[in-house]
Structures are given as structure tokens and as C-alpha cells.
From TrEMBL:
Name assigned to this protein: Nitronate monooxygenase
Family matches, as SUPFAM superfamilies: Inosine monophosphate dehydrogenase (IMPDH) (SSF51412)
The UniProt record lists the keyword Oxidoreductase: yes
InterPro entries in the cross-refs: Aldolase_TIM (IPR013785), NMO (IPR004136)
Signal peptide coordinates: none
Keywords: Flavoprotein, FMN, Monooxygenase, Oxidoreductase
Superkingdom as given in the UniProt entry: Bacteria
GO molecular function, one term: nitronate monooxygenase activity
Organism from which the protein derives: Agromyces archimandritae
Pfam families (alphabetical): NMO
Amino acid sequence: MSLTTRFTEAIGIEHPIVQGGMMWVGRAELAGAVSEAGGLGIITALTQPTPADLVKEVERARRLTDKPIGVNLTILPSINPPPYDEYRRAIVDAGVTIVETAGSSPEPHMEMFREHGIKVIHKCTSVRHALKAEKLGVTAVSIDGFECAGHPGEDDVPGLVLIPAAADALSIPFIASGGFGDGRGLAAALALGADGVNMGSRFMCTVESPISQTVKERIVEASELDTNLIFRSLRNTARVAKNAVSDEVVEILAAGGQFPDVQPLVAGARGRKVFEDGDLDAGIWTVGLVQGLIRDIPNAGEVVRRIVADAEAVLRAKLALFGEPAVAPVG
């Protein structure tokens, strides 16, 4: 069974389920498993230390599946920015046909991607940014609600409002991100007008996810209350796991501190140690509110298959409320 939407048809996959690009998490094993199950697995470009390593990582993923695999390219302001042009060239050289862009506008990259037939999914946090991406010619948009891990933007609009608002405004396919982790979520996203879902935290907590088992078990144990919003006063809000470090960051900034006062606490190298060593208080690490719905650590392919089956069951059950006759299976 496949679940066909405008997004699956545009991207060329079986099911409208995307594994979001996550720093230190989006590697070949996870991306390959998601794609092999019919979703879209995504390798995170900047997790790889060099553009050449990215090409090798894509090759590793292709040994796991012959189905489409995407690459995430997150563009953010930095004192020492990565060589984005070189990573973009590596994406082309690796023969990648789907790219998820995030952070800043994808405009500087669109010409090359368009020339090489690469489909772009741009991730954003507001309808106005989604409309700008549509004008730039992206194939689809991934729109992040306030529930998401990482940067939810500064509008604080949750998915229940953001998704139908996007559906009313956009002409291109779009997927919903932030707060999705099971079949109920996929069914709800489709009912609200989205063409699929993007999931990060749910795929972090799978067998193929390359992070410490301790972190995965913490996600299972945690509730939807166990996150912190940091950098609020700096208007660069990020949702991260609640731990000793993020509690301290919130406290310092609430007392009037500025970024230099917390910079040593939020260094990316410290967050990477959490994922690699399993020390939950080594640094800040991102996870979404949906962790309150995550209760196991299955294979990534099982997650895809389970969500599709459960979404179908939910939608059929709701149709029955109207006395509708049974319908043929989707796909």
C-alpha cells in the first residue's frame, strides 16, 4: 500500500513522510532506512566534515537503498561560515535529486539546483516565508509549527493554525513539521490541508539513529513538558531538551544576560558530545514537544509503515462517523 499525495507525486516517493535533516543525526544508516521503507530519508550536509565526505555519505546510503534520498543544506549566519558553494557542488556531483534547504533563503542556491534538475523542499516557520520560497520556484515547502525542535521562528504559531493557513495561501505542495510522531498526526496534517509530514524527534528515537542509546531512552521517558525555549530575549528562539545546561541558559538570559554570557554553554561541540557519549548534561540538544508521544525505539522502517497504517485506520474510523460506506485502500 502507498499513500499518494501531491507531495509524493512531486518528489517521487511512496509515502508522505520525511525524516528531517538533523545535525549529527542525518547520516546514511537512518536516511537509507527511511527511504527504503517508502519515505524520504535525508542526509545532513554539514554533519559531514568536508564536501568530499558528503559525497561518500551519499554513496553509503545508496548501498542501503535504491530509492530517493535527499540532502539537507542549512544556511545560517556564522562568524566562520561553511563553504556552502562547495557543499552545493558536492550535492550536484553526488547525483542527489532532492534537497531540503533551511535557515536563510534558498535563493543563492536555486539557479544551480534548477540547472541540474534538483527538487528543493524549503523549510520555514511562517506563511510569508513559504510564499517567498514558492516565488523562488521551490518544489515544495516544509512548514514548522511552534511545537518543533530547534528554531520555531518568532511568531509562536502552532500547527493547528499554521497548517490550514499555509493550505489557504500556497499553490505548491507542502508538508507539516513540528509535533508529528504517529499516525494520528499524519491523519490530522492531511485533514488540515498538508500533503505530508516531516519528523525529526521521532526518527531520532529509532534503531538506526546514530545517537547514544541513553539519549533515545531519555526521549522515551520524557514528557511534552521536558523542553526549554532558549534565546527568547535574543529573538533567536530554539527549543531544546530540558537539562541542567538549558536551565542555566534560560536563567542567565532572563536576568538580562546577552549571548556572550551563554556562548560557552551552547557550543555545538558540547551538544555533539551529548549525542556521541550519552552525557545528557554535556550541552544543549534539540528535541520537540512530540517526545511526549514517543514511547519506543523501533526500526525507522517500522515507524514509516506503522504511521501510514495508523493514519489510514484513523481516517477510515472518522469516515464511519458519517455513515460512509467502506472505501478502497489508499494507493
